[in-house]
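Bumping with the actual sequence this time:
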Amino acid sequence: MNRFFILALFVVALLGCQTKYPGVPEKYHTLLDSAFVKANENATELQMALSETLEGQKEGMAFLISYMPESDLTSLKADFLLENVEYAYKAREKYSWCAALPDSVFLNEVLPYANISEERDNWRPDFYKRFAKYAEGKTNMVDAIMDIAKNIEKEVDVEYNTKRSRVDISPFQAMKEHMATCTGLSILLTDAYRAVGIPSRLAGTAMWTNYKGNHTWNEVWIDGNWHFIEYYPDTLNKSWFVSDAGKADPENMLHWIYAASYKPTEMPYYAAPDGSVMEVVDLDKLPEDVKSRFQRMKEMGGEREIKRFAYGHNVTQRYIALYEESLKNSKLADDELLANVVVFSDSDVTKSESRLKCRVNVMNGDKAVNFGYSPRKTDDMNQFLQFKLKKGEEYQFTVTNPEHEINESFTIKTNDDDTQDIQLILP
């Protein structure tokens, strides 16, 4: 065969490959082919979204479609995706911190329209308008992070409440109900950050090592490192759950700390918000060692069926390191324990509504030990007022709340364990 004819065929084939998805990097071409097949009848919507995306934004649309959960491939429409991409890139153009992000971080932690298994709301245009005022004029992303966290409850009118309709509640549904628990609150905050170009993702655990529950929170990416923050913020990398997260078992996946990822990883995001085992990807797609561990967990704890998949990273060691750092200047002595104190207005200690914020003064004989304020009904159920106390000693707890005319005293003897839960139930 004539070598010039062979060269011509090669050039035609190469041009055909380059023009198959104009403006889209070649690394997405095979992924897009597969996504369009899985989309079935909805493929025309996705193809329309890709073709109508502006030239400089096509990689973003290709990224979303290439790694999209299958249920989204068959249901999401072109208008939804186009609006999401448009506003994400608008934030990248407007905010210097977003413009400076590596493409990989922008694509995976700013651009996605969802976090885990929540309903797919078109929150981005609304949140862009709501939260731009807290980012406006700021040159430091940390200032914007803190301003949004301090104002989000007022902005969306959503508070912690276990009566919400579902754990993984979507932003608009949470705003409609005016309530959410930690997973829903974290979804709200991550979406608020992403709306103004701040990289954010969910993090959490399926179960603390003390088996007293689970938790979900937020992470933000600052200058190449991930830091955590919450809907009810202290400051970066500081919160009530650090000691629980720091006691995670690196050898037990049930107790790992996970961070969510839109782009597939080698493991599921496993922050099961209801405390049960939640399998979020096909086990057969996992590496054999990970697959066998999740199979055992599934057999131990049951399985919660969800419609959408989410992937994750194991970030346990980072939280262990944060906890160990926090303990350097506050380690328990051999004769000390950590008391977890909650005040309840009635005997039903399982309800968030039963908790009551009060001042709690602790005395040992005639000596004042410490004081603080017990968790509110809107605080996470795993949050406590914590005191360092001596083991095997008798303490007087005085609970006061002038607004509710409360002034009650309790005598409690501490045990010999390293921690002790103290529930002060008002008469």
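The tokens above came from a reply further down the thread. The longest helix spans residues 3-19.
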